[in-house]
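Structure ticket #2291
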Amino acid sequence: MRRISLSVLFILVCFGVFAQEDLMNLLNENNPKEINFTTATFKSTRILNGHSIERMPAGQLDVRISHRFGRINTGAYEFFGLDQANMHLSLEYGIFNWLMVGVGRGNYEKTFDGFTKFSILRQSSGAKSMPVSLSVLTSVAMNSLKWPDQTRTNYFSSRLSYVGQVLIARKFNQAFSFQLTPSYVHRNLVSTELDPNDLYALGAGGRLKLTKRISLNAEYYYLANPKSYMSQQIYNPLSVGIDIETGGHVFQFIFTNSVAMIEKGFIGETTGSWAKGDIHFGFNISRVFTLKKH
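Resolution: structure written out below.
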């Protein structure tokens, strides 16, 4: 009887093991691999001047302060540009995990600006493979300088300019990310009839991770419009800088030939040349606050 009991117990255990394996196989068939979304393609919502593919998560507020000093080649009398300062302050909020909005004010042409950025595709692997992330940015800016000629009829619409961008980025590995940014800028009013109302540019930016918290960033925008026909000498904006992450802060130290910190300004209105030493030192400071916890 003891041998019969042990045999029956052995058969029941074996049956339970095989039944469990069959159940796990069935569950795996009905539940495919998880989707692994790529994160931290860039460390901030900006590469340097221009927007990156990153956006604020829902319920988080990014308070950003940006400075660009004067040109380094002004010499010691101007303390190599540090005697002059251009500033931009913005508040940027994540409404959903795929949508963020922002408003800002800068002393470049005393401009007020606002933007929306929403994600369409996210780079992923696993059950769903997507090689790139793709977002769309739209923004509007208002020049609030006093009209130089108060006697003529001045329209409010003449103060406005608009920007549309497609952000296409890929994180190749833990160390390197790259982004292409086709851009369109429309200015309702320009300085002279030589200056086009519509500008077309292609931006390219990259991030090379040096340590866990430090990365080297670079950014360049090629202006497709023929610059020789404009009323003033225009250059393509080039920026290089360092990202330093410290918890809730991200510091970006930047060298650039553009003094403006919004797309309307640095695309088509950059008058400085790296070859001539028209380089501005500057920085971005980003501090994130969680206003709504999940």
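Closing remark: The two ends are 61 Å apart (CA to CA).
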